[in-house]
């Protein structure tokens, strides 16, 4: 049953204006994010060309491999070129994905062969976490071309850049990513892919926290003053009803309305897209800070170092944006791993609900403290906007791990674009929500609200 308060809220113009605003902003954002499919295909094709050049350099002559292996490698690489050209002419994402998988397997195999038994192999242990799985995939795809390690070792100064151990991370993640796309018969899956599942990620990544801060403020700024000015609060509180019951119902009404404003349009758009793609990418791989779901471990952050050296601050693999680790490489953090897309969406939606709850509670706290509703709105907006601006992904340190504003973008948190873990964010947001609720109840009981 819908409560009377909720029905009153649903009849307000601002509620429907907010829903329309979310739909319009979402559609504009999706149109911008999803455009340029041809350009993205060209970028992927160029990446495959670059991979082939890397492979030619690593297997450039019989200095590194014996003559028979050299012939096999050249035949394989020429096959890649032919497959790439066919894929490019047909704009065949799936065929290009297969080429990229095999290329990255060969690259990973070469790097692993050179470094697995080196004197510093223990230092590289973190880079080679998935080596067993990758070597098994190499054998299954008949790509196990042995290098002449004695020759490579004698000319290590020439080959150090070609077989850098940190590159294995990039190669193994890419190989596993494209392998999953191939097995699931998925074509395009890049940072801008838009379908019935990825709409939630695009919305939360691009719209949080700015749009929620503004719309939640507009929806909740008169949550208490309206009842006070109309005399409803005086009548209700003259009945045998506790103030805590009244304020709890007001909070519940506002929270339900806010969730409807943000989640209902996304669900409608998702179901509409499902008519075309049938949730085909539900189990697609997405790279994330999986360990952060159950751990408080803080990741090393290279964003400040990248900015100082004018390096690129972000790289992409599928839907995941990441900063390279170490700074001079292009590899994701070796602590990452893949999870299924539907799991990622559920987890970020759960954190998004906590973020929205925090904003609702904070706005209502301001309305309790300040009798003037416009003053309450201005104060709450300023605090949330300034705090969100200060809470940048490059932040590190204990202080930022203990404030809720750090976790206002759930996609950045779970994908590992910040230093802090998902579990850390869930607990911090939950703790602050409880504190805000208790503070609201305490102040509401103390202040003369109804006069």
From TrEMBL:
GO cellular component, one term: plasma membrane
Pfam families, per database record: ABC2_membrane_2 (PF12679)
Entry's transmembrane regions: 15-32, 258-276, 341-362, 374-402, 422-444
GO molecular function: ABC-type transporter activity
Superkingdom field: Bacteria
Keywords in alphabetical order: Membrane, Transmembrane, Transmembrane helix
Keyword Transmembrane in record: yes
Protein name: ABC transporter permease
Protein's organism: Amedibacillus dolichus
């Amino acid at each position: 049953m819908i409560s009377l308060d909720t029905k009153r809220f649903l009849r307000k113009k601002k509620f429907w204006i907010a829903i329309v605003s979310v739909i319009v902003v979402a559609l504009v954002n999706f149109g911008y994010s999803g455009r340029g499919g041809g350009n993205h295909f060209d970028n992927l094709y160029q990446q495959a060309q670059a991979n082939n050049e890397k492979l030619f350099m690593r297997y450039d002559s019989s200095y590194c491999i014996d003559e028979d292996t050299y012939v096999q490698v050249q035949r394989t690489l020429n096959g890649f070129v032919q497959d790439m050209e066919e894929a490019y002419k047909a704009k065949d994402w799936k065929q290009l994905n297969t080429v990229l998988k095999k290329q990255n397997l060969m690259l990973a195999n070469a790097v692993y062969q050179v470094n697995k038994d080196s004197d510093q192999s223990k230092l590289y242990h973190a880079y080679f976490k998935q080596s067993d799985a990758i070597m098994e995939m190499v054998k299954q795809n008949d790509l196990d071309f042995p290098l002449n390690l004695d020759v490579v070792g004698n000319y290590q100064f020439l080959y150090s850049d070609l077989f850098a151990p940190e590159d294995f991370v990039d190669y193994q993640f890419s190989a596993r990513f494209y392998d999953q796309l191939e097995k699931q018969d998925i074509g395009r899956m890049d940072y801008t892919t838009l379908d019935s599942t990825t709409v939630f990620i695009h919305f939360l990544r691009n719209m949080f926290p700015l749009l929620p801060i503004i719309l939640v403020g507009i929806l909740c700024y008169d949550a208490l003053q309206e009842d006070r000015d109309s005399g409803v609060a005086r009548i209700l509180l003259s009945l045998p009803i506790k103030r805590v019951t009244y304020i709890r119902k007001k909070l519940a009404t506002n929270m339900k309305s806010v969730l409807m404003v943000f989640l209902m349009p996304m669900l409608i758009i998702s179901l509409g897209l499902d008519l075309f793609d049938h949730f085909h990418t539900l189990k697609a791989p997405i790279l994330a800070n999986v360990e952060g779901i159950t751990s408080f471990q803080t990741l090393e952050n290279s964003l400040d170092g990248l900015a100082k050296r004018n390096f690129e601050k972000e790289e992409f693999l599928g839907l995941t944006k990441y900063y390279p680790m170490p700074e001079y490489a292009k590899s994701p953090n070796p602590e990452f791993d893949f999870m299924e897309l539907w799991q990622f969406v559920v987890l970020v939606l759960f954190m998004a609900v906590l973020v929205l709850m925090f904003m609702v509670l904070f706005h209502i706290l301001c309305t309790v403290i300040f009798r003037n509703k416009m003053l309450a709105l201005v104060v709450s907006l300023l605090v949330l906007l300034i705090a969100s601006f200060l809470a940048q992904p490059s932040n590190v340190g204990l202080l930022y791990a203990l404030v809720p504003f750090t976790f206002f973008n759930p996609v950045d948190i779970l994908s590992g674009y910040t230093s802090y873990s998902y579990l850390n964010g869930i607990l911090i947001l939950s703790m602050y929500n409880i504190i805000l609720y208790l503070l609201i109840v305490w102040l509401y009981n103390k202040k003369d609200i109804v006069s």
